[in-house]
Structure formats: structure tokens, C-alpha cells
Amino acid sequence: MGLTRPPRARPAPRGHEPQSRPVPRVSSRDDIKDGVDDEQEADPTPTRPLAFESTFVEDGDAISICMREGSRGRIVFLTLWLAGWTVACVALAWTAITSRQLFPFLFGLPFWSSWVFAAVWITKDLYGLQTVSLDPVGLAYERSSPAMTTQRFVPLEELRGIESRVFFVDDDGEGKHGIEIRTLGRSITIATALPPPERDWLAARLDGHRRRLQSAAGLHDTPEVDRDDCRACAAPTDGTWAYEDGFEGPQFVQAGRPDLPAVCFLLFVTLFWNGIVGIFIAAQFGVDGGPPQIAAGPWSLMTLFLIPFEVVGLAMFGGLMAALVEPWRVTQWRFGHDAVSRITTRAGLPLAWNRRYRHAGLATAAVRDDLPARRLFSPDNAPTGTHHGLVVSDAAHAEVCTIRGLTLGEARWMKGRLQAAGVID
User: Fold this and answer.
1) CA separation for the pair 38, 287 (Å, rounded)
2) What predicted TM-score, i.e. pTM, was given to this entire model?
3) 204 & 335 share domain
4) 280: pLDDT confidence band, cut at 50, 70 and 90?
5) How high is the pLDDT of residue 346?
6) Residue 27: pLDDT band by 50, 70, 90 thresholds?
7) Residue that finishes a domain, picked among 183, 216, 249
8) pLDDT tier at 407, thresholds 50, 70, 90
9) Range list of β-strands (E), 136-174
10) What does the pLDDT look like over 204-227, one tens digit per residue?
């Protein structure tokens, strides 16, 4: 059976029944009242909830889920907050326009950047949809919003597990929950706004269906992280690394990719922070209309007090510049006969800390899964699947270098390429 794309329709409003279909089993908001099919009773799944906030469709060997990305509580809170914030932003804008001075503009910059950030967040919560479809071909994921749409397809053999889990717990004991779809590549996070009973049931149902499909296709779970021989391991479909035969020996090359959410978030943080710091700096030079405070001396108490905040603001600006030039970043790992080199360039310039690891001969490599994940932008601490790495050792079993920020599929593929090239055993 071919891949069935999930429906793009929004979840049915409360009190409305979905359109009847002759074969599929459809679970929408309030239309699930009773009855559990024999196949579900045989699975150790959680209790099916009475009401659904997502749309669940099961049609033969295909399961599709469509859900909103935001929660009602957050939408209501941000809407009320934005209504009052709009009044303040309009008043500040009018003052900045009529006064034609720099200080009112600097004073209003944090307010305006916060308004834009909240408006974008509300729009994402109101109109953002996540759709997942799982069938014998694989898993199709789509995340759509008015600004952009992202799609990804994961073949059935690359799926490793689907579970409802807690991503992190803050100081108040509140946890961030969701469903993690673990693959050989990067993880997919869904259902962060769904109620716990519905989220747990959907995760169990999806994972049970995954196991049945993989068993029917002759695929078996491989819970172990490392393998002795990885020559047959292929690169994951979302892999970001390429293999080349370089002058010094085998090398892996990664080209950067644009990350619009990261750029937008860093732009907001930079404008907000530096706008506030800019108010105090402007007061130092009398831009606010008062006497210049810097006249008392270049090393006044206020000047010294502002130095740490200015350093943080410059660091934020540097992060924004790094995100903007990320598409022109190139990272290389070169395996030579006497050294392993890591070289990173941005826009052709060596704007990174490059390393060269000397060795007397490489012998083995091991895949690890306990390394810090690489996350440029992940405000909800959602899992990325990049907590794996490849530890390369010499004949004395001493670590030579570690390639971090990899997915499991990338780490296995790199090890297999090194084994095929005769660099390691």
C-alpha cells in the first residue's frame, strides 16, 4: 500500500461529528464514547480517553493523526497580554514619531520586539498543525503554519520507537511532556499540547502499530547502540554529512543549513536585551535630555555596572550573526595517516576553533549515546536525537578524538565508512 498523507484539515470543533467513512475508524473530539476493537484489547495500551482533541484516523494498515500545536490556556493568556501590550506599544510608537528623538525609539524597542514575538507565537498556536501518518512504507510528518511548512519522511526501517515522555522538569517540578518519535536520524516531537491520557494512548497505539508493521516486513528492533561491523549501515535519510576521499585520506564534510526559527528567536532576544541596555547607555551620554552622566568620568559607577550587560548583549549579537551565516558553514573531519583534523569555515573564513589530533595509528571506533545533544534553537528542550558521537581510539585503546552532535544513524554510518576504508578495524 502506498504512503497515505495525513489530512490537512483542522481538528473538528467540539460537539461536531467527523464525516462518516465506510472503512476507517475515526476518533475526533467527542465522538469516542465506548467500544474498543479486539486488536486494541490485545495490546498493552493505556485506556482510550473519552474525548479527543486531535483527529485520529485508522484505515487498514495506515494511521493518521492531526493535532493543533498550541494549547488553549496559552492562547488565551497571550491574547489578553497582547491586548494590553498593544496599547503601550502604540503609545510609545506615537511618542517616538512625534518627538523625532533617539531616546524614545530606544525605549520602545524592547516593547515592540516583545509584541512581534508574542503575535507570532499566538499565530503559531492558533493555526499551527502537526500531522503524522504511519503505514507500511514509513512515517510522514508535516508541520504547517501560516509562515512556513516543513515536511519529513522516515522509512519504516529507520523507526526505532515512539513513546510519551517528559523532556525536562523545571525548578517548580513542572515538566514538559510530549511524544518523541525516535529514528536513526533526528527525533520528531509531537503532541506537546495534548492532555496526558490522550498523549499516552496515541504514543502506545503508534508504537504498537510500528512494531506490527516492522515485524510483517521482517524488520527487527536493534536496541544496542554500537555494532562491531557497521559496513552495511547506510546514512539516515536526514543525514547532514557526506563522505569524500581527500588528499590526506577519508574525510567527512558537513554543510550548514538555514534555520529560520533560530534566526527569528535570536533576533528577538538581541533586540530586547540590547534595547534595554541601550536605554542606560543613552542616558550616559545625555540622549534622554538630561545631563551626560559620563561627564563625571569614563569609569563612573554606572559605566562599570553596565559592562557585564554590554558583554552579554555583544554575545547575543554574535550568536545572531553566527545563525545568519550558518548556511555558509562547512565543517570537515579529515583522517590522515598521523593526525585527525577538524576544520570549520564560515563564508570561507576560518571563524572557528580548529583542532588537530595527533596519533600513531588508529585502531577502533565506538558509538556512544551519552553525549550532549547539539541544539542551536530548542526552547522547549525537546529531544533532537543528536546526543550520539563516534569515539576514535588508537591501538593502546586511548581516545584520539570524538565526533559529537551526531545521530545514531550518522555515527554508525561514519564508523562503517572508516572500516571500509581500512582506517579502523
Assistant:
1) 75
2) 0.78
3) no
4) confident
5) 86
6) very low
7) 216
8) very high
9) 138-144, 149-155, 159-169
10) 999 999 999 999 999 876 677 888
Q: Is it the case that residue 242 has pLDDT exceeding 70? A: yes
d(CA 79, CA 75): 6
2 within a domain of the structure (yes/no): no
- Cell matching residue 394: 588508537
Does residue 20 belong to any structural domain of this protein? no
Write out the DSSP string of 222-261: ---S--S--TTPPPPTT--EEEEE-SSSEEEEEE----HH
The number of beta carbons lying within 10 Å of the beta carbon of residue 307 is 9
End-to-end Cα spacing for the chain: 41
Q: Can you tell me the mean pLDDT for 141-160? A: 91
What distance in Å separates the CA atoms of residue 319 and residue 323, rounded to the nearest whole number? 6
Q: How many CB atoms are located within 10 Å of the residue 251 CB?
A: 19
Same domain membership, residue 174 and residue 155: yes
Residues 6+ apart with CB under 8 A from 183: 154, 158, 159, 160, 236, 238, 385, 407, 409
Cell 558537513 sits at which residue? 254
- DSSP type of residue 49: P
CA separation for the pair 287, 267 (Å, rounded):
25
pLDDT of residue 173: 56
Residues 178 and 154 in one domain: yes
Distance CA 259, CA 298 (A): 41
d(CA 359, CA 344): 21
Strand order in the sheet with 129-135: 25-27, 55-59, 62-68, 129-135, 138-144, 149-155
Residues 168 and 104 both lie in one domain: no
**DSSP classification of residue 349:** B
**CB-based burial of residue 13 (10 Å sphere; 0-12 exposed, 13-18 middle, 19+ buried)?**
exposed
Q: Which three cell numbers stand for residue 272?
A: 530586547
Q: In terms of residue numbers, what domain contains 113?
A: 72-126
Place of cell 527487527: 220
Of the three residues 165, 193, 216, the one that is the final residue of a domain is 216
**Same domain? 159 vs 296:** no
